[in-house]
Design a protein that fits this description.
With 237 residues, the chain is of the alpha/beta class. It has helices spanning 8-13, 34-43, 63-67, 83-90, 101-112, 176-182, and strands spanning 21-24, 48-51, 71-76, 95-98, 117-120, 134-137, 140-146, 150-161, 166-167, 183-194, 213-216. Helix 5 (101-112) packs across helix 6 (176-182).
Length: 237
Amino acid sequence: MTKVIDDAVPAMRTHLRDGMTIAAGGFGLCGIPTDLIKVVRDSGVKDLTIVSNNLGVDGKGLGLLLENNQISKVLASYVGENALFMKQYIDGDLDVEFVPQGTLAERMRAGGSGIPGFYTKTGVGTLVADGKPTAEFDGETYILERGIIVDLALVHAHTADTDGNLLFRRTARNFNPLVAMCGLVTFVEAENIVDPGDIDPDAVHTPGVYVHHVLQATSPTDIEQRTVQPRLARQEA
């Protein structure tokens, strides 16, 4: 049965509630699920815990939820491009758990794989390790990190088939496959929707078993830092 839906609003609103945990793909503004984030914003749900590498930038991406005072806690590895995020954190208005980037990725992958926790050396001897169990392996100290499972996962893909198999494009792949794995319910917005078999099986990045709903992406792609090469002066023949 097809997983494609025409309208994300009624489907997502059956799952949205105050106090839930939401994971969103993206890195800066690259590969963010803009349409799905807007549905969350417009729903007005509050006291959200957000799991994402960062919160986009002011006025875009997850920054929309921040400006709407819908977020109470964030698990992220970076805050530098969002001034409001930094201000709320410094002012103590936002609970932020900083997670090393690789650890954040592995926590989502572990949660989606049914692994409750894993040991890593990353963060040993730093504030990251505070309050976490430790163990020694081969004479080295490791800290225990818990897998992440979220109530709702929001993903942006380049191509999805109607069975929910996903293909991501280049850098926009980033955290999206991991977010898709760790959601109890996963919504995907895709730039292209095709029939089963139209994606080469070797090119599938996320199997459809992780995906519950697919819809056509409509929002234009935002570029966080536009960098162009200076035009060279034309040489006379």
